[in-house]
Write a structure and sequence with these properties.
The protein is mostly beta strands and 519 residues long. 3% of the residues lie in helices and 43% in strands. It is built from three helices and 35 strands. The longest helix has 5 residues.
């Protein structure tokens, strides 16, 4: 029997521009703070005074929110907004820097900016610029990661960043100043280096993924010209990597090839598991406390939560998809787990308060009494240029009907914008949620899957299963996600019921592992 899971929308927020990065603050005492970054590409005027095409203008905004569970109807409150260059990634340092939380921001000007969180009150704190590193001209900073993923203090603070020129950039942060110093910069990939990440258990090791479909490992103590390993297991651009903060030697990677791979870093020749998630995997986030739960932002197919226990303990060839939070006419990009401990199941009054920020958002009730958020949307004509935030979206505001499933069109390359996608690399990135193979999901909804057989011998704490009563506590988490095209930040709750071994006996087929139901 499957372990039931469900998702519930708590709040949606209009971000005005396309939202592509979201992070809860991991620093103890500041878990209620959420940062969200947006990206907007303004097409140039047709011609300038000399008759030549102008350059595109990338702009964005950084939002800071406070989450208050005492306000169930609108738990998320905006406390700051900063107009800035377009944002491609946001990462908080896991420990305080000079006694304050610090966030790193990768932007479209080719810079990584660092801001301190100041103020003592959670609902009135502010981000203040601290310092920045310019990676180089004519490039985009695409990602960054801190070396503090295991939340360890006393170790040298380092940051690894990747850019659109295929380079990796290694910094050290001096807490005493505070200040930042460039340690090294090297060419890692022939095309865009979409992602860079630390091995949290050995921070001299970093990983990178690029548009050349390669996954690489690097020892920063050695010559950067030679990677420790190069994997060609992914068939398209590698755009997400995260090392497990709970289990040494466990690494998750994702790609435009729509597959999430789990690796034992001691053997990078063959992955432990290969899971098809039906969408390009832009971000991966391990759960902050449950070592087997993995959140994936799967672009065309929404957000998915994976159970990796079988792959870690029983050598299952694929992970179980526990839940899906499905979006339509948008691409799933940013995703993160909150470290807040949510209360037990929401009351009916709280459920009805999936607060909307716009009068156009409608609430409906399903036959089971669960709430469903139905967003009224406009027709979108999507001109695809690249899988970073270089999308040009034209809203057909004259249309009165809901958005119809559309297949993305390949637009002419905009002048001044780097060619971020090539030839066959477009496969898996062009067909949006409304593509021909997804027409049966035309309605806008959130959905949750029913998890399947719970692998034996593996509990939440890594120990063997023990008998559990039907009243066993649920695993509950708050999740923040954001998406392109609809300009929406979503905050939702995920619940997983824990079942006893007797309820999980028997075998399950791959189709049974991924059963989805709308709520």
């Amino acid at each position: 029997m499957a372990a039931p899971c469900r998702t519930r929308t708590l709040q949606v927020v209009d971000t005005e521009f396309s939202a592509d990065a979201v992070e809860w603050c991991p620093v103890e005492g500041w878990h209620s703070i959420l940062a969200c970054g947006t990206y907007h590409l303004r097409p140039p005027a047709a011609t300038d005074a000399r008759g030549s095409n102008g350059a595109c203008d990338r702009t964005g905004r950084l939002y800071l929110y406070h989450y208050n569970e005492e306000q169930p109807y609108i738990p998320l409150t905006e406390i700051q907004r900063i107009d800035t260059a377009a944002i491609l990634d946001i990462k908080w340092c896991h420990v305080p820097v000079a006694e304050h939380p610090m966030v790193g921001i990768a932007n479209s000007t080719g810079a990584v900016e660092f801001c301190h969180l100041t103020g003592s009150e959670k609902n009135s704190c502010m981000l203040e610029p601290c310092f920045r590193v310019d990676l180089g001209a004519q490039r985009l900073a695409l990602s960054l990661d801190w070396s503090t993923g295991r939340e360890q203090c006393g170790c040298p603070l380092r940051v690894i960043s990747s850019d659109s020129e295929g380079k990796l950039n290694l910094f050290s942060v001096d807490e005493s100043a505070p200040s930042v110093h460039v340690l090294n910069q090297w060419e890692a990939h022939k095309f865009e280096a979409w992602i860079a990440a630390f091995n949290y258990w050995d921070t001299d090791i970093v990983y990178s993924g690029g548009d050349d479909s390669l996954l690489k490992g690097w020892d920063t103590r050695c010559s950067p010209e030679t990677p420790v390993f190069t994997s060609r297991r992914h068939s398209m651009g590698v755009c997400s990597i995260q090392c497990s903060p709970h289990r040494e030697n466990l690494l998750a990677t994702g790609s435009y090839d729509e597959h999430v791979l789990l690796w034992d870093t001691r053997n990078m020749k063959q992955p432990l598991a290969d899971t098809h998630v039906e969408g390009g995997v832009w971000r991966l986030k391990w759960h902050p406390t449950c070592d087997f739960v993995l959140l994936a932002a799967c672009m065309q197919s929404g957000f998915k939560i994976l159970d990796c226990r079988g792959s870690m303990a029983e050598n299952m060839e694929e992970c179980i998809i526990l839940s899906s939070y499905v979006l339509h006419n948008s691409l799933a990009y940013g995703a993160d787990w909150s470290r807040l401990c949510p209360r037990d199941s929401l009351t009916a009054a709280q459920d009805s308060a999936g607060a909307c920020q716009s009068s156009e958002e409608l609430l409906g009730r399903s036959e089971q009494g669960d709430e469903r958020l139905n967003l009224q949307v406009q027709n979108l004509k999507i001109m695809y240029e690249s899988p970073t935030a270089t999308f040009d979206v034209i809203l057909d505001e004259e249309s009165e009907g809901p958005a119809l499933p559309l297949k993305a069109e390949r637009a002419p390359k905009l002048s001044g914008d780097p060619d971020l996608v090539r030839g066959a690399d477009l496969k898996g990135s062009l067909d949006l949620a409304g593509g021909p193979d997804r027409g049966e999901h035309a309605e806008s909804a959130s959905s949750s899957g029913l998890g399947a057989k719970r692998p034996k011998g593996m509990g939440l704490d890594g120990s063997g299963d023990s008998a559990r009563s039907p009243d066993s506590p649920k695993e509950m988490s708050i999740v923040a996600t954001c998406s392109f095209y609809d300009n929406i930040l979503h905050v939702w709750k995920w619940e997983m019921s824990l079942v006893s071994p007797s309820e999980t006996s028997g075998t399950t087929s791959p189709s049974e592992r991924t059963a989805e139901s709308s709520h």
